[in-house]
């Protein structure tokens, strides 16, 4: 059942809004066919579903996305080779979604003493604001959240915050043949960038992270070859540590430039603690199924966990094993998908006791 469901999901090209909506519709149909209650929602043309089972004071949320990045036509034809299932979205993250769906089907008739809320969304790859971001604002909250991103069955407790920042640098125009008479805004911007790399916030470390990251992502400057550019907009993608403060980072940047600093987009970090009682519950389950110590780590990127973290709800990324997601040879290890499903079932059964 699990493998067939996963193959069907991979075969849906959900790299567009329409395709992702089709995948949500298929999930809704599958869940209904297996006797699960489904509510479909739509926001700004993006579809999502919520499937709620059980009853009790506590709520465990399973969150998964069916949208994928673009792929070649053959990537939407699932192919099984040597224990791996290849295809766009196999790892990121239709395997996790399929496991969550089949886990919900297995749990629907059990008296668990808690609510399980399965959320399947269609816009994580483009930010998640229209689906998971929308759901939390509508009150679809819980006590603990698992997002089924591919983590090699490890537990990603934390995620860096995201801050996409533009710095507008001014120079002085001059004739291109006499650059010494002007101030080149591109050169000045690059000097600012080099200074930023040495600011105090870049040297900070935590137990899970060696430091924040800074990507010089965009440069917009210059009009013609024979003029010294007098304006440069430099775009930075800063991934800051859960222990850091966005406003303090901006203050440090402003202290070394006379340019205008503006934040284009930011999301808060995820700060789930290792001693959280639900982590203490999940950890031995992972170790029982994998026969090794559970890997605890922090993600450099972000996922839909950020929306729940903003409400101080502990959230983690936890999913099957695979590789090359967003690449040409994306695959998931099928054995890990079955293990993952069983871990979710055991976790749900023991959740109410934490």
Structural class: alpha+beta
Regions with little confidence, pLDDT below 50 for 5+ residues: none
How far apart the termini lie comes to 31 Å
Number of helices: 9
**Biggest sheet: strands, sense, closure?**
6 strands, mixed
Trace the largest sheet across and list its strands: 1-2-6-3-7-15
Q: Compute the gyration radius: what is it?
A: 23 Å
Strand content: 25-35%
Topology order in helix (H) and strand (E) letters: HHEEEEEHEHEEEHEEHEEHEHEEEH
Query: Quick check: average pLDDT?
Result: 95
* Shape annotation: elongated
**Share in helix:** 25-40%
How many DSSP E strands?
17
Describe the protein in words.
This protein is α+β, with helices and mostly antiparallel strands. Helices cover about 30% and strands about 25% of the residues. The protein contains nine helices and 17 strands. The protein has helices at about 1-10, 15-35, 90-105, 130-135, 185-195, 245-255, 275-290, 305-310, 335-350; strands spanning about 40-45, 45-55, 60-65, 80, 85, 115-120, 145, 155-160, 160-170, 215-220, 230-240, 260-265, 270, 295-300, 315, 320-325, 330-335. Strands 1-2-6-3-7-15 form a six-stranded mixed beta sheet. It has a four-stranded antiparallel beta sheet with strand order 4-5-17-16. Strand 16 (about 320-325) and strand 17 (about 330-335) form a beta hairpin. Helix 1 crosses helix 3 and helix 3 packs across helix 9. The longest helix has 18 residues, at about 90-105. The radius of gyration is 23 Å and the shape is elongated. The relative contact order is 0.19. The mean pLDDT is about 95.
């Amino acid at each position: 059942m699990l493998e067939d469901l996963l193959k069907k999901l991979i075969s849906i090209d959900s790299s567009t809004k329409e395709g992702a909506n089709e995948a949500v519709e298929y999930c809704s149909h599958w869940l209904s066919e297996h006797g699960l209650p489904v509510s479909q929602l739509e926001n700004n043309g993006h579809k999502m579903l919520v499937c709620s089972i059980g009853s009790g004071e506590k709520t465990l949320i399973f969150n998964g996305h069916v949208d994928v990045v673009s792929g070649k036509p053959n990537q939407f034809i699932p192919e099984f080779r040597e224990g791996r299932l290849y295809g766009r979205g196999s790892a990121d993250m239709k395997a996790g979604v399929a496991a969550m769906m089949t886990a919900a089907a297995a749990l629907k008739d059990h008296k668990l003493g808690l609510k399980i809320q399965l959320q399947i969304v269609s816009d994580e790859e483009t930010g998640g604001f229209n689906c998971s971001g929308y759901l939390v604002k509508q009150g679809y909250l819980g006590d603990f959240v698992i997002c089924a991103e591919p983590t090699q069955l490890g537990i990603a407790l934390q995620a860096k915050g995201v801050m996409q920042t533009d710095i507008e640098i001014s120079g002085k125009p001059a004739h291109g043949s006499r650059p010494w008479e002007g101030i080149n805004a591109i050169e000045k911007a690059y000097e600012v960038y080099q200074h930023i790399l040495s600011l105090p916030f870049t040297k900070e470390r935590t137990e899970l992270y060696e430091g924040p990251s800074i990507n010089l992502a965009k440069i917009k400057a210059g009009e013609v070859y024979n003029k010294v550019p007098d304006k440069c907009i430099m775009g930075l993608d800063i991934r800051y540590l859960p222990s850091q403060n966005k406003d303090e980072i901006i203050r440090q940047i402003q202290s070394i430039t006379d340019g205008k600093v503006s934040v284009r987009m930011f999301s808060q970090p995820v700060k789930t603690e290792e001693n959280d009682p639900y982590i203490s519950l999940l950890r031995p389950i992972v170790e029982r199924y994998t026969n090794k110590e559970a890997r605890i780590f922090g993600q450099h990127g972000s996922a839909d966990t950020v929306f729940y973290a903003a409400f101080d709800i502990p959230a983690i990324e936890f999913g099957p094993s695979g590789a090359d997601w967003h690449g040409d040879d994306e695959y998931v290890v099928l054995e890990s998908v079955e293990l993952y499903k069983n871990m979710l079932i055991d976790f749900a059964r023991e959740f109410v006791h934490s």
